[in-house]
Request: fold
Amino acid sequence: MTSLEGLVIKQQSGFFTVETAEGPVICQLRGRLKEEASRRARKDDEDRTDLCTIGDRVTLTLLADGSGTIRKVHPRRQVLSRADTTGGRAVAVQGSEQVIIANSDQAVFVFAATRPDPNPRALDRLIVAAEKGHIPAIRIVCTKIDLLDRAEAERIFAPYERIGYPVLYTSTRTGDGVDALRAMLTGHISVFTGPSGVGKTSLLNAIQPGLGLRVLAVSEATSKGRHTTVHSELFPLEGGGYVADTPGIRSIGIWDVEPDELEAYFIEIAPHVAGCKFPDCTHTHEPGCAVRQAVRRGEITRERYNSFLRLRKEIEETYEDWA
Ligand SMILES: Nc1nc2c(ncn2[C@@H]2O[C@H](COP(=O)(O)OP(=O)(O)O)[C@@H](O)[C@H]2O)c(=O)[nH]1
Ligand SMILES: [Mg+2]
Ligand SMILES: [Zn+2]
Reply:
């Protein structure tokens, strides 16, 4: 029996395609792992979490017919999850995590400069999910820059650059930023997402002909309600690395974030928290709140602070519903 290690690049109906040194091998989970997966998939299970998903590194046994059995899923460095949403809720509490991708080392969030106008609140939500998932690099792409003054676009996006999220301005009409985007994606396992119509497919086609047609087919079919099977995939880039497509990406929820934890995922708010007078400060109304002082001094933008407040309220309400 040959033992191989590899990367799970596709998942569909209980079958996993694993990229190995010997080429791709189609695998199933070994019996014991499979039982564990279905046990954890039960709705009432407290620590439900998918056992194997795209991005996982695995050890498999190669069988005589060329297929494989996954024996071991290696520990994950990062995990991006989403709430198992019912009724379109964006926030969930423990018990409904769906791991959508493991070990992605970069999240790229795409918004248009206009048509449609950017939605910074949606961006903040995506950033929280990525911070929660410990994705090491979070980047923003502002595309269709040919349609708007650069200065106008920067009014919205430059504040993100200042707090540490690099912003790339692109246009598939003029070609601006396309080489830089290709370089940004090469060598990484990237989550690449953003609202519908912002220009994601066009950008992927621009960096690699045909790529956009393949990537986003899964998530877009799902969002239009056309999907029948759950399927997710990592698409290889010519220069190395992968772009992820999974139905979950379009609706990354804020999985298991507690109200008091949220501040940790607003990276420019977090450093001020220690300065608050009360250790349990919610940064909403308390005297001696260092976060609100930083907002007044302009060190935290009103937009991001308001976004934080709104998200916090939403999470609190979800917790009350569950209490
Ligand atoms: N002006 C302009 N239009 C673009 C650009 N990129 C995409 N579009 C147009 O925006 C629309 C949506 O693009 P698409 O790539 O399908 O967006 P997706 O839904 O995010 O995949 C299409 O009509 C594209 O032709 C761009 O850089 N500039
Ligand atoms: Mg598209
Ligand atoms: Zn405070």
Remarks:
- The longest strand covers residues 2-12.
